[in-house]
From TrEMBL:
SUPFAM superfamilies: MurCD N-terminal domain, MurD-like peptide ligases, catalytic domain, MurD-like peptide ligases, peptide-binding domain. Its EC number is 6.3.2.9. This is UDP-N-acetylmuramoylalanine--D-glutamate ligase. Keywords: ATP-binding, Cell cycle, Cell division, Cell shape, Cell wall biogenesis/degradation, Cytoplasm, Ligase, Nucleotide-binding, Peptidoglycan synthesis. ATP binds at residues 120-126. It comes from Parapedobacter composti. The gene is murD.
Length: 457
Protein backbone atom coordinates (compact mmCIF):
# COMPACT_ATOMS: atom_id res chain seq x y z
CA UNK A 1 0.00 0.00 0.00
CA UNK A 2 1.11 3.55 -0.71
CA UNK A 3 1.95 5.88 2.13
CA UNK A 4 -0.81 8.40 2.76
CA UNK A 5 0.39 11.92 1.90
CA UNK A 6 0.28 14.61 4.55
CA UNK A 7 -2.84 16.77 4.18
CA UNK A 8 -2.55 20.14 5.89
CA UNK A 9 -6.25 20.70 6.51
CA UNK A 10 -8.33 20.97 9.71
CA UNK A 11 -9.28 17.55 11.04
CA UNK A 12 -12.15 18.80 13.17
CA UNK A 13 -14.55 21.71 13.48
CA UNK A 14 -17.24 22.97 11.10
CA UNK A 15 -17.11 21.50 7.61
CA UNK A 16 -19.35 23.10 4.98
CA UNK A 17 -20.21 21.25 1.79
CA UNK A 18 -21.34 23.24 -1.24
CA UNK A 19 -23.46 21.10 -3.53
CA UNK A 20 -25.62 18.15 -2.48
CA UNK A 21 -25.14 15.77 -5.39
CA UNK A 22 -23.40 12.39 -5.41
CA UNK A 23 -20.02 13.74 -4.32
CA UNK A 24 -21.38 16.24 -1.80
CA UNK A 25 -23.60 13.81 0.05
CA UNK A 26 -20.87 11.15 0.09
CA UNK A 27 -18.46 13.72 1.52
CA UNK A 28 -20.99 14.70 4.17
CA UNK A 29 -21.36 11.11 5.38
CA UNK A 30 -17.59 10.53 5.49
CA UNK A 31 -16.98 13.86 7.23
CA UNK A 32 -19.54 13.11 9.93
CA UNK A 33 -17.95 9.69 10.41
CA UNK A 34 -14.60 11.42 10.97
CA UNK A 35 -16.00 13.74 13.65
CA UNK A 36 -16.63 16.99 11.77
CA UNK A 37 -19.58 19.28 12.47
CA UNK A 38 -21.11 18.96 8.98
CA UNK A 39 -23.48 21.34 7.19
CA UNK A 40 -24.56 21.07 3.53
CA UNK A 41 -25.68 23.95 1.30
CA UNK A 42 -27.04 23.72 -2.25
CA UNK A 43 -28.09 26.76 -4.28
CA UNK A 44 -30.59 24.58 -6.17
CA UNK A 45 -33.10 21.95 -5.21
CA UNK A 46 -31.67 18.78 -3.64
CA UNK A 47 -32.81 15.54 -5.26
CA UNK A 48 -35.17 13.57 -2.97
CA UNK A 49 -32.86 10.55 -2.68
CA UNK A 50 -29.93 12.73 -1.57
CA UNK A 51 -32.16 14.59 0.88
CA UNK A 52 -33.15 11.24 2.35
CA UNK A 53 -29.48 10.20 2.73
CA UNK A 54 -28.72 13.42 4.62
CA UNK A 55 -31.77 13.08 6.87
CA UNK A 56 -31.01 9.43 7.61
CA UNK A 57 -27.48 10.44 8.64
CA UNK A 58 -28.75 13.36 10.75
CA UNK A 59 -26.86 15.94 8.68
CA UNK A 60 -28.38 19.46 8.50
CA UNK A 61 -28.74 21.11 5.09
CA UNK A 62 -30.25 23.99 3.18
CA UNK A 63 -31.42 24.15 -0.44
CA UNK A 64 -32.32 26.92 -2.85
CA UNK A 65 -29.72 29.32 -1.43
CA UNK A 66 -26.23 29.71 0.02
CA UNK A 67 -26.30 31.36 3.47
CA UNK A 68 -23.12 33.41 3.38
CA UNK A 69 -22.66 33.83 7.13
CA UNK A 70 -22.94 30.08 7.71
CA UNK A 71 -20.50 29.28 4.91
CA UNK A 72 -17.91 31.83 5.99
CA UNK A 73 -17.98 30.33 9.51
CA UNK A 74 -16.42 27.09 8.23
CA UNK A 75 -13.06 25.64 9.20
CA UNK A 76 -12.99 23.71 5.91
CA UNK A 77 -15.13 23.83 2.75
CA UNK A 78 -15.63 20.99 0.26
CA UNK A 79 -17.24 22.22 -2.95
CA UNK A 80 -18.77 20.57 -5.99
CA UNK A 81 -16.35 20.55 -8.97
CA UNK A 82 -19.05 22.34 -10.96
CA UNK A 83 -18.61 25.50 -8.85
CA UNK A 84 -15.76 27.62 -10.29
CA UNK A 85 -13.14 28.96 -7.91
CA UNK A 86 -13.87 32.43 -9.32
CA UNK A 87 -17.40 32.82 -7.91
CA UNK A 88 -17.69 35.46 -5.16
CA UNK A 89 -18.37 33.14 -2.20
CA UNK A 90 -15.32 30.99 -3.04
CA UNK A 91 -13.15 34.08 -3.40
CA UNK A 92 -14.34 35.30 0.00
CA UNK A 93 -13.48 31.96 1.59
CA UNK A 94 -10.01 31.94 0.07
CA UNK A 95 -9.39 35.55 1.12
CA UNK A 96 -10.27 34.58 4.72
CA UNK A 97 -7.76 31.71 4.58
CA UNK A 98 -10.45 29.01 4.74
CA UNK A 99 -9.34 25.98 2.70
CA UNK A 100 -11.63 25.11 -0.23
CA UNK A 101 -11.12 21.61 -1.64
CA UNK A 102 -12.98 18.89 -3.56
CA UNK A 103 -14.36 15.48 -2.65
CA UNK A 104 -11.39 13.56 -4.05
CA UNK A 105 -8.88 15.60 -2.06
CA UNK A 106 -10.95 15.27 1.12
CA UNK A 107 -11.60 11.53 0.87
CA UNK A 108 -8.09 10.52 -0.22
CA UNK A 109 -6.63 11.44 3.16
CA UNK A 110 -8.73 8.72 4.82
CA UNK A 111 -7.65 5.73 2.71
CA UNK A 112 -4.36 3.95 2.10
CA UNK A 113 -5.73 2.22 -1.01
CA UNK A 114 -3.74 2.54 -4.24
CA UNK A 115 -5.18 5.38 -6.35
CA UNK A 116 -5.20 4.90 -10.12
CA UNK A 117 -6.26 8.24 -11.59
CA UNK A 118 -7.28 8.79 -15.21
CA UNK A 119 -7.74 12.15 -16.91
CA UNK A 120 -7.83 13.46 -20.46
CA UNK A 121 -10.06 15.54 -22.71
CA UNK A 122 -11.48 12.44 -24.40
CA UNK A 123 -11.81 8.77 -23.59
CA UNK A 124 -11.41 9.01 -19.82
CA UNK A 125 -14.80 7.45 -18.96
CA UNK A 126 -14.23 4.53 -21.33
CA UNK A 127 -10.65 4.03 -20.13
CA UNK A 128 -11.67 4.29 -16.47
CA UNK A 129 -14.40 1.69 -16.91
CA UNK A 130 -12.12 -0.55 -18.99
CA UNK A 131 -9.31 -0.33 -16.43
CA UNK A 132 -11.68 -1.11 -13.56
CA UNK A 133 -13.12 -4.05 -15.54
CA UNK A 134 -9.70 -5.53 -16.36
CA UNK A 135 -8.51 -5.20 -12.76
CA UNK A 136 -11.70 -6.57 -11.21
CA UNK A 137 -11.81 -9.49 -13.68
CA UNK A 138 -8.17 -10.12 -12.78
CA UNK A 139 -9.09 -10.67 -9.15
CA UNK A 140 -8.19 -7.30 -7.60
CA UNK A 141 -10.38 -5.78 -4.88
CA UNK A 142 -11.00 -2.52 -6.75
CA UNK A 143 -13.45 0.37 -6.45
CA UNK A 144 -14.68 2.71 -9.22
CA UNK A 145 -15.29 6.38 -8.50
CA UNK A 146 -14.49 10.00 -9.34
CA UNK A 147 -16.41 11.53 -12.24
CA UNK A 148 -18.17 8.18 -12.73
CA UNK A 149 -20.06 5.75 -10.53
CA UNK A 150 -20.68 6.10 -6.80
CA UNK A 151 -19.12 8.75 -4.57
CA UNK A 152 -15.46 8.11 -3.74
CA UNK A 153 -15.97 9.58 -0.26
CA UNK A 154 -18.93 7.29 0.45
CA UNK A 155 -16.92 4.26 -0.62
CA UNK A 156 -14.02 5.31 1.62
CA UNK A 157 -16.54 5.58 4.47
CA UNK A 158 -18.27 2.24 3.88
CA UNK A 159 -16.03 -0.05 1.78
CA UNK A 160 -12.60 -1.63 2.12
CA UNK A 161 -11.04 -1.61 -1.35
CA UNK A 162 -7.34 -2.23 -1.95
CA UNK A 163 -7.31 0.17 -4.90
CA UNK A 164 -9.55 2.63 -6.70
CA UNK A 165 -9.80 3.57 -10.35
CA UNK A 166 -10.79 7.25 -10.40
CA UNK A 167 -11.96 9.26 -13.40
CA UNK A 168 -10.61 12.76 -12.72
CA UNK A 169 -11.79 15.88 -14.56
CA UNK A 170 -9.81 19.10 -14.84
CA UNK A 171 -12.37 20.73 -12.51
CA UNK A 172 -11.54 18.11 -9.86
CA UNK A 173 -7.82 18.61 -10.38
CA UNK A 174 -8.23 22.34 -9.79
CA UNK A 175 -9.44 21.58 -6.25
CA UNK A 176 -6.45 19.40 -5.33
CA UNK A 177 -3.36 20.51 -3.43
CA UNK A 178 -1.87 17.55 -1.52
CA UNK A 179 -3.54 14.68 -3.38
CA UNK A 180 -1.20 12.09 -4.86
CA UNK A 181 -1.95 9.58 -7.61
CA UNK A 182 -0.03 6.31 -7.30
CA UNK A 183 -0.74 5.80 -11.00
CA UNK A 184 -1.51 8.88 -13.11
CA UNK A 185 -2.89 8.42 -16.63
CA UNK A 186 -3.08 11.39 -19.04
CA UNK A 187 -4.81 10.22 -22.22
CA UNK A 188 -4.75 13.39 -24.31
CA UNK A 189 -5.34 17.13 -24.17
CA UNK A 190 -7.56 18.95 -26.65
CA UNK A 191 -9.17 22.39 -26.19
CA UNK A 192 -12.19 21.96 -23.90
CA UNK A 193 -13.92 23.97 -21.15
CA UNK A 194 -11.81 26.98 -22.15
CA UNK A 195 -14.53 29.29 -20.81
CA UNK A 196 -13.45 28.05 -17.34
CA UNK A 197 -9.77 28.79 -18.09
CA UNK A 198 -9.85 32.40 -19.28
CA UNK A 199 -10.01 31.03 -22.85
CA UNK A 200 -6.31 30.15 -22.58
CA UNK A 201 -5.24 26.67 -23.63
CA UNK A 202 -2.12 26.86 -21.46
CA UNK A 203 -4.29 27.25 -18.33
CA UNK A 204 -6.23 24.13 -19.26
CA UNK A 205 -2.98 22.23 -19.95
CA UNK A 206 -1.63 23.28 -16.54
CA UNK A 207 -4.83 21.97 -14.95
CA UNK A 208 -4.52 18.58 -16.65
CA UNK A 209 -0.90 18.20 -15.56
CA UNK A 210 -1.95 18.55 -11.92
CA UNK A 211 -2.57 14.79 -12.22
CA UNK A 212 1.20 14.29 -11.62
CA UNK A 213 1.34 16.72 -8.69
CA UNK A 214 2.98 15.20 -5.58
CA UNK A 215 3.94 11.96 -7.33
CA UNK A 216 7.06 10.13 -6.12
CA UNK A 217 9.75 8.21 -8.06
CA UNK A 218 8.06 4.91 -7.23
CA UNK A 219 4.77 5.99 -8.83
CA UNK A 220 3.74 5.65 -12.49
CA UNK A 221 2.88 8.25 -15.14
CA UNK A 222 1.17 6.84 -18.25
CA UNK A 223 0.66 9.19 -21.20
CA UNK A 224 0.12 9.33 -24.97
CA UNK A 225 3.38 10.07 -26.76
CA UNK A 226 1.44 10.80 -29.98
CA UNK A 227 -0.51 13.71 -28.46
CA UNK A 228 1.24 16.97 -29.40
CA UNK A 229 -0.24 19.12 -26.63
CA UNK A 230 0.76 16.55 -24.00
CA UNK A 231 4.33 16.24 -25.32
CA UNK A 232 4.63 20.03 -25.48
CA UNK A 233 3.32 20.24 -21.91
CA UNK A 234 6.05 17.86 -20.75
CA UNK A 235 8.59 20.59 -21.54
CA UNK A 236 7.10 22.59 -18.66
CA UNK A 237 5.75 19.86 -16.36
CA UNK A 238 8.43 17.34 -15.41
CA UNK A 239 7.15 14.05 -13.93
CA UNK A 240 9.30 12.39 -11.28
CA UNK A 241 7.36 9.11 -11.50
CA UNK A 242 8.35 6.30 -13.88
CA UNK A 243 7.03 7.24 -17.34
CA UNK A 244 5.18 4.63 -19.41
CA UNK A 245 4.23 6.26 -22.74
CA UNK A 246 2.05 4.68 -25.43
CA UNK A 247 2.03 5.27 -29.18
CA UNK A 248 0.66 3.98 -32.48
CA UNK A 249 3.76 5.06 -34.39
CA UNK A 250 6.84 4.64 -32.17
CA UNK A 251 8.07 1.37 -30.69
CA UNK A 252 8.36 2.36 -27.03
CA UNK A 253 10.15 0.31 -24.36
CA UNK A 254 9.08 0.57 -21.64
CA UNK A 255 5.57 1.51 -22.74
CA UNK A 256 3.00 0.35 -25.27
CA UNK A 257 2.97 0.45 -29.06
CA UNK A 258 1.42 -1.06 -32.20
CA UNK A 259 3.68 -3.47 -34.06
CA UNK A 260 3.74 -4.28 -37.79
CA UNK A 261 1.31 -7.18 -37.26
CA UNK A 262 -1.30 -4.77 -35.84
CA UNK A 263 -0.80 -6.08 -32.33
CA UNK A 264 -0.70 -4.03 -29.16
CA UNK A 265 2.62 -4.65 -27.43
CA UNK A 266 2.90 -3.73 -23.73
CA UNK A 267 6.27 -3.69 -21.99
CA UNK A 268 6.46 -2.88 -18.28
CA UNK A 269 9.72 -3.36 -16.33
CA UNK A 270 10.03 -6.73 -14.57
CA UNK A 271 6.87 -8.09 -16.25
CA UNK A 272 6.48 -10.42 -19.23
CA UNK A 273 5.50 -8.78 -22.53
CA UNK A 274 1.80 -8.60 -23.42
CA UNK A 275 0.60 -8.74 -27.03
CA UNK A 276 -2.92 -8.70 -28.50
CA UNK A 277 -4.27 -8.36 -32.03
CA UNK A 278 -6.25 -5.10 -32.21
CA UNK A 279 -9.01 -6.88 -34.17
CA UNK A 280 -9.70 -8.99 -31.07
CA UNK A 281 -10.41 -5.92 -28.91
CA UNK A 282 -14.06 -5.47 -28.00
CA UNK A 283 -13.72 -1.71 -28.57
CA UNK A 284 -12.77 -0.89 -32.14
CA UNK A 285 -11.41 2.32 -33.68
CA UNK A 286 -8.10 4.13 -33.44
CA UNK A 287 -9.03 6.00 -30.26
CA UNK A 288 -9.93 2.74 -28.56
CA UNK A 289 -6.52 1.27 -29.38
CA UNK A 290 -5.12 4.16 -27.34
CA UNK A 291 -7.63 3.50 -24.54
CA UNK A 292 -6.70 -0.19 -24.44
CA UNK A 293 -2.98 0.66 -24.38
CA UNK A 294 -3.47 2.95 -21.38
CA UNK A 295 -5.62 0.42 -19.51
CA UNK A 296 -3.25 -2.40 -20.44
CA UNK A 297 -0.26 -0.52 -19.07
CA UNK A 298 -2.08 0.00 -15.76
CA UNK A 299 -3.07 -3.66 -15.60
CA UNK A 300 0.38 -4.98 -16.51
CA UNK A 301 1.96 -2.72 -13.87
CA UNK A 302 -0.38 -4.37 -11.34
CA UNK A 303 1.10 -7.73 -12.39
CA UNK A 304 -2.07 -9.12 -13.97
CA UNK A 305 -1.75 -12.28 -16.04
CA UNK A 306 -1.71 -11.88 -19.82
CA UNK A 307 -4.52 -14.40 -20.32
CA UNK A 308 -6.79 -12.52 -17.91
CA UNK A 309 -6.03 -9.17 -19.55
CA UNK A 310 -6.69 -10.54 -23.03
CA UNK A 311 -10.03 -12.05 -22.00
CA UNK A 312 -11.14 -8.78 -20.39
CA UNK A 313 -10.04 -6.56 -23.29
CA UNK A 314 -11.97 -8.84 -25.62
CA UNK A 315 -15.19 -8.99 -23.60
CA UNK A 316 -15.58 -5.44 -22.22
CA UNK A 317 -18.77 -3.55 -23.11
CA UNK A 318 -18.66 0.23 -23.33
CA UNK A 319 -20.50 2.60 -21.01
CA UNK A 320 -23.91 4.02 -22.00
CA UNK A 321 -23.92 7.16 -24.15
CA UNK A 322 -20.42 6.51 -25.56
CA UNK A 323 -20.69 5.02 -29.07
CA UNK A 324 -23.54 2.89 -27.70
CA UNK A 325 -25.33 0.76 -30.28
CA UNK A 326 -29.08 1.35 -29.94
CA UNK A 327 -30.79 -0.52 -32.79
CA UNK A 328 -30.72 -1.49 -36.45
CA UNK A 329 -33.98 -0.39 -38.10
CA UNK A 330 -34.63 -0.94 -41.81
CA UNK A 331 -30.93 -1.57 -42.33
CA UNK A 332 -29.86 1.66 -40.58
CA UNK A 333 -27.69 1.52 -37.44
CA UNK A 334 -28.45 4.03 -34.67
CA UNK A 335 -25.52 4.96 -32.38
CA UNK A 336 -25.81 7.02 -29.17
CA UNK A 337 -22.66 9.06 -28.51
CA UNK A 338 -24.30 11.72 -26.34
CA UNK A 339 -21.22 11.83 -24.09
CA UNK A 340 -19.28 13.43 -26.98
CA UNK A 341 -19.50 16.97 -25.61
CA UNK A 342 -16.52 18.41 -27.51
CA UNK A 343 -15.29 18.45 -31.10
CA UNK A 344 -12.43 16.02 -30.53
CA UNK A 345 -14.81 13.37 -29.21
CA UNK A 346 -16.92 13.73 -32.37
CA UNK A 347 -13.76 13.39 -34.49
CA UNK A 348 -13.00 10.10 -32.72
CA UNK A 349 -16.56 8.87 -33.30
CA UNK A 350 -16.53 9.73 -37.00
CA UNK A 351 -13.07 8.21 -37.40
CA UNK A 352 -14.19 4.91 -35.88
CA UNK A 353 -17.31 4.45 -38.05
CA UNK A 354 -17.65 3.60 -41.75
CA UNK A 355 -18.84 6.24 -44.26
CA UNK A 356 -22.47 7.18 -44.95
CA UNK A 357 -23.31 8.79 -41.62
CA UNK A 358 -26.26 11.00 -40.75
CA UNK A 359 -24.85 13.08 -37.91
CA UNK A 360 -27.05 14.63 -35.20
CA UNK A 361 -25.09 17.38 -33.45
CA UNK A 362 -25.40 20.74 -31.70
CA UNK A 363 -26.31 22.25 -28.34
CA UNK A 364 -24.56 24.74 -26.10
CA UNK A 365 -21.36 25.73 -27.88
CA UNK A 366 -18.30 25.96 -25.58
CA UNK A 367 -16.17 27.94 -28.04
CA UNK A 368 -15.74 24.92 -30.30
CA UNK A 369 -13.46 24.91 -33.34
CA UNK A 370 -15.29 22.74 -35.88
CA UNK A 371 -12.59 23.06 -38.52
CA UNK A 372 -10.95 19.79 -37.49
CA UNK A 373 -14.14 17.93 -38.47
CA UNK A 374 -14.28 19.18 -42.04
CA UNK A 375 -12.31 16.39 -43.74
CA UNK A 376 -14.22 13.64 -41.97
CA UNK A 377 -17.57 15.34 -42.62
CA UNK A 378 -16.68 15.71 -46.29
CA UNK A 379 -15.71 12.04 -46.69
CA UNK A 380 -18.09 10.28 -44.29
CA UNK A 381 -21.19 12.38 -43.49
CA UNK A 382 -24.25 12.26 -45.75
CA UNK A 383 -26.22 14.84 -43.75
CA UNK A 384 -26.17 16.84 -40.51
CA UNK A 385 -29.28 17.30 -38.37
CA UNK A 386 -28.82 20.09 -35.82
CA UNK A 387 -30.24 20.07 -32.30
CA UNK A 388 -30.14 22.93 -29.80
CA UNK A 389 -31.08 26.59 -29.77
CA UNK A 390 -28.25 28.15 -31.79
CA UNK A 391 -26.21 26.22 -34.34
CA UNK A 392 -24.99 29.14 -36.44
CA UNK A 393 -21.32 28.27 -35.83
CA UNK A 394 -21.86 24.69 -37.00
CA UNK A 395 -23.48 26.01 -40.18
CA UNK A 396 -20.64 28.48 -40.75
CA UNK A 397 -17.99 25.78 -40.34
CA UNK A 398 -19.52 22.71 -42.03
CA UNK A 399 -22.33 23.74 -44.39
CA UNK A 400 -20.08 23.50 -47.46
CA UNK A 401 -18.81 20.03 -46.49
CA UNK A 402 -22.08 18.09 -46.52
CA UNK A 403 -24.97 17.96 -48.96
CA UNK A 404 -27.73 18.41 -46.40
CA UNK A 405 -27.86 20.40 -43.14
CA UNK A 406 -31.18 20.95 -41.36
CA UNK A 407 -32.49 22.14 -38.00
CA UNK A 408 -34.84 20.18 -35.75
CA UNK A 409 -37.40 21.16 -33.12
CA UNK A 410 -36.59 18.48 -30.53
CA UNK A 411 -34.88 15.10 -30.25
CA UNK A 412 -37.86 13.15 -31.57
CA UNK A 413 -37.98 15.47 -34.58
CA UNK A 414 -34.21 15.11 -35.12
CA UNK A 415 -34.39 11.31 -35.11
CA UNK A 416 -37.37 11.27 -37.48
CA UNK A 417 -35.60 13.61 -39.91
CA UNK A 418 -32.42 11.51 -39.70
CA UNK A 419 -34.36 8.30 -40.35
CA UNK A 420 -35.78 9.79 -43.56
CA UNK A 421 -32.36 11.00 -44.72
CA UNK A 422 -30.60 7.69 -43.97
CA UNK A 423 -30.47 4.85 -46.47
CA UNK A 424 -29.97 1.14 -45.93
CA UNK A 425 -26.40 0.54 -44.66
CA UNK A 426 -26.10 4.06 -43.20
CA UNK A 427 -25.46 5.01 -39.58
CA UNK A 428 -27.43 7.65 -37.68
CA UNK A 429 -24.99 8.99 -35.10
CA UNK A 430 -25.86 11.26 -32.18
CA UNK A 431 -22.51 12.92 -31.41
CA UNK A 432 -23.30 16.49 -30.37
CA UNK A 433 -19.87 18.19 -29.79
CA UNK A 434 -21.70 20.49 -27.38
CA UNK A 435 -23.06 20.70 -23.86
CA UNK A 436 -26.66 19.62 -23.39
CA UNK A 437 -28.31 22.04 -21.00
CA UNK A 438 -30.26 24.12 -23.52
CA UNK A 439 -32.75 21.32 -24.34
CA UNK A 440 -31.81 18.61 -21.85
CA UNK A 441 -30.98 18.08 -18.16
CA UNK A 442 -27.58 16.55 -18.99
CA UNK A 443 -25.90 14.35 -21.59
CA UNK A 444 -27.57 11.25 -20.11
CA UNK A 445 -31.01 12.79 -20.60
CA UNK A 446 -30.06 13.72 -24.17
CA UNK A 447 -28.89 10.17 -24.89
CA UNK A 448 -31.97 8.63 -23.25
CA UNK A 449 -34.27 10.83 -25.33
CA UNK A 450 -32.38 9.78 -28.46
CA UNK A 451 -32.77 6.09 -27.58
CA UNK A 452 -36.46 6.53 -26.82
CA UNK A 453 -37.04 8.35 -30.12
CA UNK A 454 -35.20 5.60 -32.04
CA UNK A 455 -37.27 2.86 -30.43
CA UNK A 456 -40.46 4.78 -31.31
CA UNK A 457 -39.66 4.95 -35.04
Amino acid sequence: MAAIPTYHYPQQGKLVILGAGESGVGTAILAKQKGFDVWVSDAGAIAPRYKQHLEDAGIPYEEGKHSEAQILDAALVVKSPGIPRTVPIIRQLISKGIPVIGEIEFAAQYTDAKLICITGSNGKSTTTMLTWYILSQGGLNVGLAGNIGRSFALQVANEQYDCYVLEISSFMLDDMEYFRADVAVLLNITPDHLDRYEHKLENYVDSKFRIIRNQQPGDLFIYCADDPITTEGLKKHHPVAMALPFSLTDKLQPGAYLNDQEEIVINVPYQDTFTMDIHELSLQGKHNVYNNMASGLVAKAQELRNASMKESMGSFRNIPHRLEFVACIAGVNYINDSKATNVNAVWYALESLPPKIVLIMGGVDKGNDYEMLRDLVRTKVRAIVCIGKDNSRIYDALEEDTQIMVNSANMRDAVEIASHLAQKGDTVLLSPACASFDWFKNFEDRGDQFKEAVMNL
